[in-house]
Amino acid sequence: MGSQGGFYQSKEFLDLVKSIGEARSKAEEDRIVLNEIETLKRRISEPDIPKRKMKEYIIRLVYIEMLGHDASFGYIHAVKMTHDDSLLVKRTGYLAVTLFLNEDHDLIILIVNTIQKDLKSDNYLVVCAALNAVCKLINEETIPAVLPQAMELLAHPKEAVRKKAIMALHRFYQKSPSSVSHLVSNFRKRLCDNDPGVMGATLCPLFELIARDVNSYKDLVISFVSILKQVAERRLSKAYDYHQMPAPFIQIKLLKILALLGSGDKQASENMYTVVGDIFRKCDSSSNIGNAVLYECICCVSSIYPNPKLLESAADVISRFLKSDSHNLKYMGIDALGRLIKISPEIAEQHQLAVIDCLEDPDDTLKRKTFELLYKMTKSTNVEVIVDRMIDYMISINDNHYKTEIASRCVELAEQFAPSNQWFIQTMNRVFEHAGDLVNIKVAHNLMRLIAEGFGEDDDNADTKLRSSAVESYLRILGEPKLPSVFLQVICWVLGEYGTADGMFSASDITGKLCDVAEAYSNDETVKAYATTALMKIYAFEIAARRKVDMLPECQSLMEELLASHSTDLQQRAYELQAVIGLDAHAVACIMPSDASCEDIEVDRDLSFLNDYIQEAIEKGAQPYIPESERSGMLNISNFRNQDHHEASSHGLRFEAYELPKPAVQSRIPQTLIASTEIVPVPEPMYPRESYQTTMPSIPSDAGSAELKLRLEGVQKKWGRSTYTPATSTSNSTSQKTVNGTSQGDGASTVSSMRETYDSRKPQVEVSHEKQKLAASLFGGSSKTEKSPATGHKAAKASSHVVEKSHVPKSSLEVASEKATPAQQPPDLLDLGEPTATSTALQLDPFKQLEGLLDATEVASAVNGAPAASRSPDIMALYADTAAGIHNKNDADLLSGLSNPSVTNMPGTTAMPQVTQSSSKGPNPKDSLEKDALVRQMGVNPSSQNPNLFKDLLG
Amino acid sequence: MIKAVMVMNTQGKSRLAKFYEYLSVEKQQELIRGVFSVLCSRAENVSNFIDAESIFGLDSRLVYKHFATLYFVFVFDSSENELAVLDLIQDVLPSVFVETLDKCFQNVCELDIVFNYSKIHTILDEMVFGGQVVETSSSEIMKAVEEISKLEAASNAISLIPKSASGWRSR
């Protein structure tokens, strides 16, 4: 065996390693290392260090960096070592740089040349060292520099070199598939290499290529099968045996590849049956590696087109794994079982006791794997036991990552298979209580919707019962300290909506609890907002029922606090509450209809209530509305002109290339002129700009909302949360749309889509503490109904998925457009990036003033070619982009426009009169537009950033 | 693909760390700490596999082996087989440096102090290349390493560590 002497380590290094090993504290270790760094810093820069010493210093540096300290001062020395002639020094240099540097490091440039040279070296050890560095240090840009040499090495006489050259190419492929895509055929060629080692190495890249694109490699099935056959029949030389197994690693890779190729392909799979069957028979199951191959066979069998005989062999092996004492084999067995039950669900039954054992094993890894298996085999008959177990386990662990995963699995299973509403709500309560902050907010919204809608059966009684049981359980849970925010939101919403519905609890009970929540979680604004709205609902229902409302003192003080809150949202809610309390019963009943959270919100997208008004305006001579689809070019301009109006809402950096303006389209703009908004009053005829400024407001809510919507499209959110915030939406909707019922703001409950996912069949499964019984509840249910219902159930499961899917897009779309829009608004409004500059420029726009003095053409000639002119197309294009966005979002825009106060404040009433006014005054719009277009074409744009230029030119 | 190879002692001090994708030194330390905190909470006689997704991200498994005072850890994705990787750790690595131990130290516990840092890097490079296992036969690996060490020995007049010629195998 190898001589230690080859790898020289000085006494000093050993002492260092030893002293670090013996260090009793992190501080002591750090002191030793810092000391060492000082020494190395000093020594490494001394002149004329012998190579052997230098090599050792570098190794010490590597060691230091491994311990987490910065060794960057020595990087350059490592790079220098790669240039050395001596192989040993070079190797150490390469080793150090591969550990120190990444492919984008500045020093790489100094190494590429050396690598190129070394790849051509006669000494294969040098070539190997260089190839090793290639794998780690070459990036997309430097691949072409070494690719030709690497290709040549594929035909190198030494198999070790060929093998490494293949791996280097594989690495190139991983880093930049396009750079070597034309060389992929080389992998196929190397598959026929004389050396089995090289062939085995080729399987790595092929595996990856096949995983990405199975169909182009179907022709290789026969080759792979025959290679596997030869390997399994021990046709390779003894040198490739490993624990008496013939080349097991090659077998494993081949089985993995066959699994990919045979998946869902009957013809290809049939070619594999014999060889896989042979391996099952021959494989030695007493060694680790033999079992590894067997496990891989099972994976392959469960992936390819099923074959009963092979499935049987697989099941045998699994039972051997599960019966073994080794935890590793049990683990593999559970994993394999999870794969196989997809094809033959009945095999789980034989192993029920083994599975239960694994579930109760102290080994966490095994336990988790078993939960994964249970998750895969859950059905409506065993869901209660499984989810119960999962939640118990979830509570017992601290690993947040896994907690999140298991919580979402519980939710998924509960939603899919819940046997009863009661159970569902209890289960969700447990999940929320223990992992509330880890689950997706959507889960909470689903729960609220479920409570609001019931289970879709026309049984109001059951729904009412469900709600009262939810209310009851929540009132109880509120006693617990420290509940997760998401859960509290659900609780507040449900209490507000249904707290007093069944008359079991009085308004003061519920409001008292809500005030407690708001007080106890006073730094959680979302919860406070939910609590406030819930309070408002309770009071509104009381008023509507013509009962006397007495506000609790704690509630009054809470309101006082909120009225002065820093959060505008909380403030608004508080004011709304105040306002609602002051109203009479009839008005309140309209604003807050009881149990109306599921009512459809009718959105009058055509704004038909404005029809009379428009008619009147048109009769007075106003221009009719032009649909957005017919005025593409115009919006560019109107947007651009309107910057000062809409500056607040139109901003953010845009990265698209600028487009040239399209002046021709401008002629379509309706001329709606008023001078009221102008800074400088101008005589109308020539100057079309003002007309644009009013176009926007004069197209009532469509354009307005479109413009606002634009913002959400093209602009990246910088601060916004992408999830919807109940805050803004509630206040918007409650304040504006009494029709809607007030509750919609609180959740996804707005949209009434029936949930058909809940399987309300009642499985009669008894849970008991005995293992046997546990097994029976996990597996037993299946034995009775296995054959046909199992598949029937699968179908049901699949269809429920479909149903869910078909619903979700619909509902979530509406919710998104309604809710998400306002929620995202604030960040955008803040997102002022560059706009201030442009808009002030516009306000000071000299062009505007000039227009009063000069003929447009004059201006054009005067300023033509001025540097400022180059800016013009840019700004135009800026808005051209956004204009394009509008057309796609027609419907959503309308909605968002409606629910957004800033827009709805100004429609119709204010805008319309302008239309009527202006139309009478309007000059010939076509003329002026064409002139403007001409000016633009000549390169002058009023948006010029340099007002002084004009001043100079024009005095 | 193999993502990382680590060797650390039972106190969490790392003895070797090799990552096959570049990671900053800080990130490396974080991962090593993460792995250690999981490893040290494992009981004896449990499986050698750990689901490492919470430390290394999606699709990552971890196989470890406890030898004397050292943990040998391989982190990899689903394109490798856990049992096979375990075999690699069990067979290939120890055969390399245990020879030293055999000869020089009576006490196995000192194993973690003496293993040869640059040599184990060389061995790993022969075994795992660019994140893929390319050589699994320990004799092949030793042959390659030997060739290199011969060269090295020739250039070094002094050798502070006594040579050993034992063919000690781990199992």
UniProtKB/TrEMBL annotation, chain A:
Domain (Clathrin/coatomer adaptor adaptin-like N-terminal): residue spans on this chain: 40-581
A cellular component annotation (GO) from this entry: endomembrane system
Protein transport in keyword set: yes
Pfam families the UniProt entry points to: Adaptin_N
Chain intervals with Polar residues compositional bias: 722-755, 897-922
Biased composition (Basic and acidic residues): 756-773
Major subcellular location class: membrane
GO molecular function per UniProt: cargo adaptor activity
Function field: Subunit of novel type of clathrin- or non-clathrin-associated protein coat involved in targeting proteins from the trans-Golgi network (TGN) to the endosomal-lysosomal system.
Superkingdom to which the source organism belongs: Eukaryota
Source organism per UniProt: Gossypium hirsutum (Upland cotton)
Positions of region (Disordered): 721-829, 897-955
Listed GO biological process terms: intracellular protein transport
Residues in the signal sequence: none
Gene3D superfamilies hit by this protein: Leucine-rich Repeat Variant
Protein name: AP-4 complex subunit epsilon
Protein's cellular compartments: Endomembrane system
UniProt subunit comment: Adaptor protein complex 4 (AP-4) is a heterotetramer composed of two large adaptins, a medium adaptin and a small adaptin.
Transmembrane segments: none
Keywords: Golgi apparatus, Membrane, Protein transport, Transport
Family, similarity comment: Belongs to the adaptor complexes large subunit family.
TrEMBL record, chain B:
SUPFAM superfamilies recorded: SNARE-like
Domain AP complex mu/sigma subunit: 1-151
Recorded topology in the membrane: Peripheral membrane protein
Main localization (coarse): membrane
Compartments reported by the entry: Cytoplasmic vesicle membrane; Golgi apparatus
Pfam families reported in the protein's UniProt record: Clat_adaptor_s
Matches recorded under CDD domains: AP3_sigma
GO biological process terms on file: Golgi to vacuole transport; intracellular protein transport; vesicle-mediated transport
Keywords: Cytoplasmic vesicle, Golgi apparatus, Membrane, Protein transport, Transport
Presence of the UniProt keyword Iron-sulfur in the record: no
InterPro entries per the UniProt record, alphabetical: AP_complex_ssu, AP_mu_sigma_su, APS3, Clathrin_sm-chain_CS, Longin-like_dom_sf
GO cellular component, one term: cytoplasmic vesicle membrane
Similarity comment text for this entry: Belongs to the adaptor complexes small subunit family.
The protein's name: AP complex subunit sigma
